[in-house]
């Protein structure tokens, strides 16, 4: 039985919660592990070394061009596993729902989660649903955790990085952040930018399997490419130099950034990876990436340097050099 | 560097987010796995069979007698693992924070999380922090996921349950829900009830190791004892009969329930378990439980019956019998 809107009683833990969980989730996500509906999922046959991650998603609006909070929650968590060299296997799903949310909105998000998980071949095996009063949350927040199998003998780590290594970005930057921004009522750009929101294991795991030359990966989400490169530089105690002219950026994204006066280097992606790879293998890896739809616009954008400890330097199109710092303010709240 | 209040920029993913994560979390939770600050935690040496769970905590108020949202988040997730017969090992922690929350409130919650995790000997290995605008969340919500090692050869399941099995509850019921309720401004009871919020592996794992006669466990959180027993009855297709006079309920909790006109059978516990055990071993198990501070008031409250498919029957103190249904309304929103 469905209701037009979510009631506080849907979060009571009682009869209505059970009905909601069956109707919205179990029916769509069905698999034998989730079907047990125990307090925790029993997972069997995992290797000794696994990856474990979690992310809270508070994106606003919850539907945007190229995705929604459900697709984002699945892809974001998968990608955090993939960055560790792990094949994603299992997800958990915790929802905090605002009383009064339309039932069909929740159904639509659950459809999206279900579709994305099925395409990605991951199982949703455990979950939790809470409902809070009107104005105690904004529509719906989703926290996903994930477990993946780390490829045998593989240890991607910032510690592997050395001067001379090349930096690859797997596609156009800034689309996700701009798609969410342009979906907000107060920012009507006049044209559509589609989020890059996507799961990346289908692109990256085959390349990882083939090339031990891939040393480290991270996805440039909140804070964008600039912040992620700074994190890498700081964690590794190394310098990074990137070429502005090599950074893939679609024409409409460039236009939007100019219109809004924001720097694309700081805008979140949700379907891109930054890879640090051995110099000699960089162009081989690039050419394989470019054969996959998600890697078509992959580029080598720079390299790791010594003598520039923990700094990221941008060689601009104009031939000047500038330091690219980590994001310090918050131009784009609730982008993911 | 700390700020008096949480700013939206603390959730930007940039410089302030890094500072917050270091200052609030990494410093307190420090361990080598978390210290890597990768996109996901690399966990090594786990057995082939693990338990995986997640819970969202939205309790209001965030501090209550006997606990706070941080302690609750750690204990609640540990207990969901323990109910599966798993020794808790690793937790993830995702926070959604309302802009303007006092920094010292967050510190105090992080202290509580850190203290509880240390006492419980679990490691917090990965996390996420998001900040939303004022009035887009209520102070702070915490979602914890957990991984535990399932005891070798052990498979607690509702499928193990047979008529004749005994039902044990490990302690006084209803304290958590009443503690939270009495902490709300509009419900001044005039006396204090302390939440039973506690992690249960120290009580239960040794007993599980000793007794294969323990067939199934579940913690009666949202919806209370009545709802949990109904879940067990429905999942197992069996009847359950409980004796009102045997259900442990402290005098102050009984008084509070009478004052508020609510049924203690529906009030959440956060440090109790319901165990279904073989009849012949029930009193041995009970006597071991009662030697532990968390099991001092454990009681055998009833038994599994046939011929009463999926119904829970209460033999009242007055000598009458009534059907105890699952919770159908929501008397106590945001109890966990």
Name its key features:
alpha+beta; Phosphoribosyl-aminoimidazole Synthetase, Chain A, domain 2; 336 residues; homodimer; 60s Ribosomal Protein L30, Chain: A; 24% strand; 2 domains; 14 strands; seven-stranded mixed β-sheet
What is the topology?
Two copies of one chain form a homodimer.
Chain A lengths: L14 H15 L2 H4 L5 E3 L6 E8 L5 E2 L2 E2 H14 L3 E13 L4 H18 L2 E10 L7 E11 L15 E4 L5 H9 L17 H10 L3 E5 L5 H13 L2 E5 L7 H10 L13 E4 L4 H8 L9 E7 L6 E4 L5 E3 L13
Helix pairs in contact in A: 1-4, 3-4
The end-to-end distance of chain A, rounded to whole angstroms, is 32 Å
Alpha-carbon Rg of chain A, integer:
21 Å
Largest sheet of chain A: 7 strands, mixed
**What do we call the CATH topology of the largest domain in chain A?**
Phosphoribosyl-aminoimidazole Synthetase, Chain A, domain 2
Structure in words:
Two copies of one chain form a homodimer. Chain A has helices at residues 15-29, 32-35, 69-82, 103-120, 175-183, 201-210, 224-236, 251-260, 282-289; strands spanning 41-43, 50-57, 63-64, 67-68, 86-98, 123-132, 140-150, 166-169, 214-218, 239-243, 274-277, 299-305, 312-315, 321-323. Chain A has 336 residues and is an alpha+beta fold. Chain A is built from nine helices and 14 strands. The first copy, chain A, has two domains: 31-150, 60s Ribosomal Protein L30, Chain: A (2-Layer Sandwich); 158-323, Phosphoribosyl-aminoimidazole Synthetase, Chain A, domain 2. In chain A, helix 4 links the parallel strand 5 (86-98) and strand 6.
